[in-house]
C-alpha cells in the first residue's frame, strides 16, 4: 500500500502522509479502514517508528485519520473529507514554503474559476 523511496528528496514522513492522504481522498482507503500500527508500518518500511508517528499525527491534525486508542488509527468519515482536503492542501502549500497570502490568493482564484475548468 505505502511505498517508501529512500532515494527521494521528499522526507519519509511526508511520503507516508501524502500517500495515505491521497488514498483517503480518492476513496482507495474507505472511511473506517484501519491503518497499520505505527510499529508495524515502520517495520514493513524499515524506518523509525517516530517517522510513521509523525505522518499519522499530521494526518490526524488535518482530519484525514482518527486515532481511537486501542482501536487503532482509521480513515476519517467521508463527511469530513472537504475539511480534510482543505487542511491537506494548506499543509502541502506550507511544506513548500508558500506564504499565507499566496495560499489565500490561490484559493480565491480557484473559487472564481468556472467549475468546468477544475477537471
UniProtKB/TrEMBL annotation:
Residues 10-78 form the HTH gntR-type domain. The keyword DNA-binding applies. Keywords: DNA-binding, Transcription, Transcription regulation. InterPro entries: Tscrpt_reg_HTH_GntR, WH-like_DNA-bd_sf, WH_DNA-bd_sf. It comes from the Bacteria. This is GntR family transcriptional regulator.
Amino acid at each position: 500500500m505505502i511505498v517508501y523511496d529512500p532515494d527521494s528528496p521528499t522526507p519519509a514522513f511526508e511520503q507516508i502522509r501524502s500517500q495515505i492522504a491521497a488514498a483517503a481522498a480518492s476513496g482507495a482507503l474507505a472511511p473506517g479502514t484501519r491503518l497499520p500500527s505505527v510499529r508495524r508500518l515502520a517495520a514493513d518500511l524499515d524506518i523509525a517508528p517516530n517517522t510513521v508517528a509523525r505522518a499519522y499525527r499530521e494526518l490526524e491534525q488535518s482530519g484525514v485519520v482518527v486515532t481511537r486508542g486501542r482501536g487503532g488509527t482509521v480513515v476519517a468519515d467521508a463527511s469530513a473529507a472537504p475539511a480534510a482536503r482543505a487542511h491537506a492542501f494548506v499543509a502541502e502549500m506550507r511544506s513548500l514554503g508558500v506564504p499565507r497570502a499566496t495560499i489565500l490568493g490561490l484559493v480565491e482564484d480557484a473559487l472564481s474559476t468556472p467549475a468546468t475548468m477544475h477537471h
